[in-house]
Write a structure and sequence with these properties.
Alpha-Beta Plaits; five-stranded mixed beta sheet; TIM Barrel; binds magnesium ion; 2 domains; globular; alpha/beta; binds 2-carboxyarabinitol-1,5-diphosphate
């Protein structure tokens, strides 16, 4: 069943240490073996027909090999594909995207194609800067290494529209209520009503004030996202004024500029907060690249904090899938789980601080922490600035909810002696952690059977456990 005259399926092949492994879900109008050949060919050295220009060296050393196929039906299933390191222009993510995440999405015999996961070999990972400080670095700055408690973050709301002074006033209230971290929203940049520099200067005054009034070191992440030159200019400016962290809308900025700006932040010893706005554009349909793939790039390139969803809030992603996203950036070693459609990955760079954000309020903190653990930025916009008594009370309620969860006390009980939490729970109904806990237990106990069932029923079933 060769494609374009050459064969790419080699079930006996054992991937080499330096190979990239790509896990793909594919479905189409032809047998899965044919689909496998086509994908491997088109994403590596082949095309639709035999070539007079092909030679043995290219074939033997550079082609992709499908070394495992798990059928879901005769025309769909999971494919494991190995690509040799030599195939790639290392340190050039664009070339990787154009190869492995490129033409294959347009092939007409495919009815579905999802790049579920990719394992990057150490030799490749090493070429990128990696996080400058990661979890430890950020904790050290904020002073939470010892306590290990979750950080509390907020996004000033409304998303856009406030003047620099109004913005800074809201931020001050949030910090005073207990936030460790304040950030711009993804679509706040350098608009007329709130120029970047004016906002930043107001915010530096606020963070200094918090330090002198409370002794706490808090973070403000200004959104520097733009074309590369302007990001670099803003980075220079905030770095000159001693800013510890910058925010980048990593997905929409794109890998090329991102790689460059993360090298700069790393060199300047500035942390990065990675907001993923837009990622779902390509991860929710039949043709998709999962966020697992992107987050690996973001870790390699150097995000210190990264949005990964919540599993319990307003953004897509089932609890177990979000847990997987968390493990990929926060652990040094992640094992393979077939039913989740993901691969093992070892890391040599620093763990990234996960940011759980989107539809979070005190009512879901119990469930959130049951899923994410303590190394997380619990981030709430509406869930703080929508509190009936305002921003400061909103931040307090969130801190109380976090304290309650850490003490193992359900939020409604803790609310009996904590008025901000009580007032929050009057408008947002408490959501106990039961479902999350049940899913986690199920995952641990039934991994094997879940794997088989998922495979026999296809990607939709696998997604149920995402
Ligand atoms: C959250 C947020 C974040 C989302 C992004 C928003 O606001 O500021 O951008 O969390 O999604 O604009 O929606 P709320 P994700 O707290 O008011 O929901 O973290 O999944 O990337
Ligand atoms: Mg936002």
């Amino acid at each position: 069943m060769a494609y374009g005259g050459y064969t790419y399926i080699d079930r006996k092949y054992r991937p080499a240490k330096d190979d990239f492994i790509v896990l793909v879900w594919a479905s189409g109008t032809v047998p899965i073996e044919k689909i496998a050949e086509a994908i491997a060919a088109e994403s590596s050295i082949g095309t639709w027909t035999k070539l007079k220009t092909m030679n043995k060296r290219v074939l033997d050393r550079l082609k992709a090999r499908v070394f495992r196929i798990e059928k879901s039906s005769s025309k769909s299933g999971l494919l494991w594909i190995a690509y040799p390191l030599e195939h790639f222009d290392v340190k050039n993510i664009i070339q990787f995207q154009a190869s492995v995440l490129g033409n294959i999405f347009g092939m007409k015999e495919l009815t579905g194609l999802r790049i579920l996961d990719i394992t990057f070999p150490e030799k490749y990972r090493k070429r990128f800067s990696g996080p400058y400080g990661g979890i430890k670095g950020i904790r050290k700055y904020v002073g939470t290494v010892k306590s290990g408690r979750p950080h509390l973050g907020t996004i000033v709301k409304p998303k856009v529209g406030l003047t620099p002074k109004e913005f800074a006033d809201v931020a001050y209230e949030a910090y005073m209520g207990g936030c460790d971290f304040v950030k711009d929203d993804e679509n706040l940049s350098d608009q007329k009503f709130c120029p970047f520099r004016a906002r930043f200067e107001e915010m530096m005054e606020v963070t200094d004030r918090i330090r002198s009034e409370t002794g706490r070191k808090v973070l403000y992440a200004p959104n520097i996202s733009d074309k590369y030159e302007r990001m670099a200019e803003r980075l220079d400016f905030i770095h000159f004024h001693g800013a510890p962290i910058a925010m980048v809308d990593v997905f929409v900025v794109g890998y090329s500029a991102l790689q460059e700006i993360f090298e700069e932040t790393h060199g300047k010893r500035v942390f990065t907060h990675a907001h993923r706005a837009g990622y779902a554009v390509e991860s929710r349909g039949e043709f998709a690249i999962t966020f697992m793939v992107h987050e690996k790039f973001y870790r390699m390139l150097g995000a210190d904090q990264l949005h990964i969803g919540t599993g319990v809030g307003k953004m897509e992603g089932s609890p177990l899938y979000i847990k997987r996203l968390r493990d990929i950036i926060a652990l040094q070693k992640v094992d393979e789980k077939l039913y989740l459609g993901s691969l093992a990955q070892e890391w040599n760079n620093k763990p990234v601080m996960p940011v759980a954000s989107g539809g979070v309020g005190p009512e879901v903190v119990d469930a959130l922490l049951a899923l994410h653990g303590k190394d997380v930025v619990v981030q709430a916009g509406g869930g703080i600035h929508g509190h009936p008594d305002g921003t400061r009370a909103g931040a307090k309620a969130m801190r109380q909810a976090i304290d309650a969860a850490l003490k193992g006390i359900p939020a409604p009980k803790y609310a009996k002696t904590h008025k901000e939490l009580a007032n929050a729970l009057k408008i947002w109904k408490y959501r106990p952690p039961n479902t999350v806990k049940k899913l986690l237990a199920q995952e641990r106990k039934r991994a094997k059977t879940l794997g088989k069932r998922a495979l026999s029923k296809g990607i939709k079933e696998i997604e149920k456990y995402w």
